[in-house]
């Protein structure tokens, strides 16, 4: 059985049906659905990023070509939350193979790595402050537990968001070596697998 088919939480949470006059059930768009993203979702992803980041700081974690790049290389490390078929929140990750993040981590996917680098988590502005960011992150971390090669998840965030990630179990690693313009970041990590994995595998 594939990893994806073994994961009920990646299947639609609820599928609405309507009853036609002939009393036959007809499926409509899922009210709420979690699924990995594909390159076809890149425009919707970038629309959310544009509002969330570019309109605020002029920068964003992933430009459109980078979104397409990662969704082509490692779509299984992304997760989108769709309501009525519309993207409302997403996470994009890739694999990394070093202890700490460097500038290279912003653009590379290291297929041999055991660390998931979460490039971006964003929620569409009309859906913020409703718990969606926390729920999506929780589901993503649960999903990563099913991927045998993943040992930990790391991310860089602005200091103001440290408490948000701490509530999901991330721990502060310290200042991040990566800066973007005048922006500085805190690096955080969440262990996915503990000592048993470390005994069986050396390195990252
Ligand atoms: C950060 C983000 C993903 C949180 O998602 P969300 O669905 O709004 O968050 P939740 O409803 O699960 O949790 C709300 C909590 O998140 C924290 N939070 C959310 N946005 C915040 C912000 N801009 N600054 C500081 N804390 C923030 C707060 O602790 C808030 O709780 P509070 O209002 O009681 O203080 C979302 O606000 C977003 O997409 N922001 C723009 C993009 C972004 O900054 N992404 C993070 C990149 S590292």
From TrEMBL:
InterPro entries: Acyl_CoA_acyltransferase, GNAT_dom, SNAT-like
BP GO annotations: circadian rhythm; melatonin biosynthetic process; response to light stimulus
PROSITE patterns to which the protein is assigned, alphabetical: GNAT
Reaction(s) the record says it catalyses: a 2-arylethylamine + acetyl-CoA = an N-acetyl-2-arylethylamine + CoA + H(+)
GO molecular function: aralkylamine N-acetyltransferase activity
One Pfam family of this chain: Acetyltransf_1
Keyword Cytoplasm: yes
GO terms for cellular component: cytoplasm
Its EC number(s): 2.3.1.87
Subcellular location: Cytoplasm
Pathway linked to the protein: Aromatic compound metabolism; melatonin biosynthesis; melatonin from serotonin: step 1/2
Superkingdom of this protein's organism: Eukaryota
Catalytic EC class: transferase
The keyword Acyltransferase belongs to this UniProt entry's keyword annotation: yes
Listed SUPFAM superfamilies: Acyl-CoA N-acyltransferases (Nat)
Record domain N-acetyltransferase: where: 32-193
Keyword annotations of the record: Acyltransferase, Biological rhythms, Cytoplasm, Melatonin biosynthesis, Phosphoprotein, Transferase
Family classification: Belongs to the acetyltransferase family. AANAT subfamily.
Annotated protein name in UniProt: Serotonin N-acetyltransferase
Gene of this entry: LOC115826712
